[in-house]
Specification:
It is a single chain. It is built from 23 helices and no strands. The chain is mostly helical. The mean pLDDT is 93.
Length: 481
């Protein structure tokens, strides 16, 4: 029985689907189970209610298992008749696995929300329904992942056995999986916001609608990831069957998926800010608008990721269908995606600062502007990532279509993307400093200048990453090509 690389990739896709979703579900159920154990120790009669909340984060693992079984069944593994499946189909299976598996990490956020639901419902049974609603909100990311996974399996022909995928389309499937899978982690931020919504609603039922609004904000990152995945499927011909055959086009899709996928982690910072916004609104209803502003600030990183993804697809001809690009440009697209995507995690630091800004503004309304300033500082890392991504697109010929042809140069640009992308993580430390600076400024306004100096110190490491990225690009000579 011949078992080639394509068949092996199918098995790997199934493993990814169930493995990552099991991680998410295990952690999510564990978080809720811990709260449930505490509740039922004091109130054994609440066992049934606690069991329902604990079961909610399990569904992501079920989605992963379902896709894994579909992949194995279609590949002939369940009947012991696994054949020599083409590599493009194997790549598509990996893409489907990434979509549902990584999106399954959304269970972590769902567990955070469900644990809050258990605690409040135990004290106030009338909050049970609202607690379930807040918990279920965090499910949508997993549903998006399941949807994309099934679409990949259908349009690649794996489910029907009528294989139509090209290698480029298989790689595009991986891009789709990365886009929706990684951005599905936005549910972690959503869970943080939802748990605050549960707590606030238990005290003031009229806050339910506003709590849902704050929680829903953190879903936009997943929507961007879903949008990018659908665009990739559309522009590579998956919907029509007129599949692209240019290998470089498939590699570009991976870059686009990384841009929107990693940028989706920005929702964690947004969730931190949104949770603070819910708490402030519960104390002072007039804080609702300002809370939304602070939470929305953390959205820009995700917008940068979506922007770069669309530009990559536009400049390389995926949108127009004029794909004469080189494989070197494909790898440069991965570099651009990593630069803006990884740097998007700077929003976590921004969310920490924004939450402090909300608290300070709630006490002293005149702190609103200063809080925004401190929060905005943490965005510069994302701007560095966006800048490097644009430089890569410009100087590798994506905009002019005078594409570089040296494969080594294209691969080397990935180093530049990693340097500025990972350097963007420094914003997390900067956010912690900014949060303290906001509190200090609220106490004494003259402390703002000194606090800004301390906050700026964390930025130097992002500048190191930007410097190395530019030196790499300069050393490759692409500025003069």
């Amino acid at each position: 029985m011949p078992i080639g690389p394509g068949t092996a990739l199918v098995a790997i896709g199934a493993g990814i689907a169930v493995g990552f979703s099991a991680i998410g579900a295990g952690i999510g159920v564990g978080i809720t189970g811990a709260a449930s154990a505490g509740v039922t120790a004091e109130k054994p009669e609440k066992f049934g209610m606690a069991l329902i909340f604990t079961a909610i984060p399990q569904t992501q693992a079920i989605y992963g298992l379902l896709v894994a079984v579909l992949i194995l069944l279609s590949g002939g593994f369940l009947g012991g008749t696994a054949g020599d499946i083409p590599i493009p189909i194997g790549l598509s299976a990996v893409g489907a696995g990434l979509a549902v598996g990584l999106a399954g990490l959304s269970s972590i956020g769902q567990g955070i929300a469900s644990s809050a639901g258990v605690a409040t419902a135990a004290e106030r049974p009338e909050t049970f329904g609202k607690g379930v609603v807040f918990s279920v909100i965090c499910e949508t990311q997993a549903i998006y992942g399941l949807l994309v996974a099934v679409l990949i399996l259908v349009f690649s022909g794996l489910l029907s056995g009528n294989y139509i995928a090209t290698t480029a389309a298989g790689l595009a499937g991986i891009g789709c999986g990365l886009s929706i899978g990684l951005s599905g982690t936005s549910a972690i931020g959503q869970g943080i916001a939802a748990s605050a919504g549960v707590a606030a609603t238990s005290e003031k039922p009229e806050l339910f609608g506003k709590g849902v609004v704050f929680a829903a904000i953190c879903e936009t990152q997943a929507i961007y990831g879903l949008l990018a995945a659908i665009l990739i499927m559309s522009f590579t011909g998956m919907f029509t069957g007129n599949l692209v055959a240019t290998l470089a086009a498939g590699v570009v899709c991976i870059g686009a998926g990384l841009a929107t996928g990693f940028a989706g982690f920005s929702a964690i910072g947004q969730g931190i800010a949104a949770a603070a916004g819910i708490g402030a609104t519960a104390e002072k209803p007039e804080m609702f608008g300002k809370g939304i502003v602070f939470a929305a600030i953390c959205e820009t990183q995700a917008i940068y990721g979506l922007l770069v993804a669309v530009l990559l697809m536009a400049f390389t001809g995926l949108i127009s269908g004029d794909m004469t690009l080189t494989l070197a440009v494909g790898f440069a697209a991965i570099a651009g995606g990593l630069a803006v995507g990884l740097a998007g995690l700077s929003a976590i630091g921004q969310g920490i600062a924004a939450s402090a800004g909300i608290a300070a503004t709630g006490e002293k309304p005149e702190m609103f502007g200063k809080g925004v300033v401190f929060s905005a500082i943490c965005e510069t890392q994302a701007i560095y990532g966006l800048l490097v991504a644009i430089l890569i697109m410009v100087f590798t010929g994506m905009i002019t279509h005078d594409f570089i042809t040296t494969l080594g140069v294209g691969i080397a640009t990935i180093g530049a993307g990693i340097a500025v992308g990972l350097g963007g993580f420094s914003a997390i430390g900067q956010g912690i400093t900014c949060a303290s600076g906001i509190a200090a400024t609220a106490r004494r306004s003259e402390a703002m200048g000194r606090s800004l100096v301390f906050a700026a110190m964390s930025e130097t490491f992002a500048i190191f990453g930007l410097l190395v990225a530019i030196l790499i690009l300069f050393g490759l000579g692409i500025f003069t090509m």
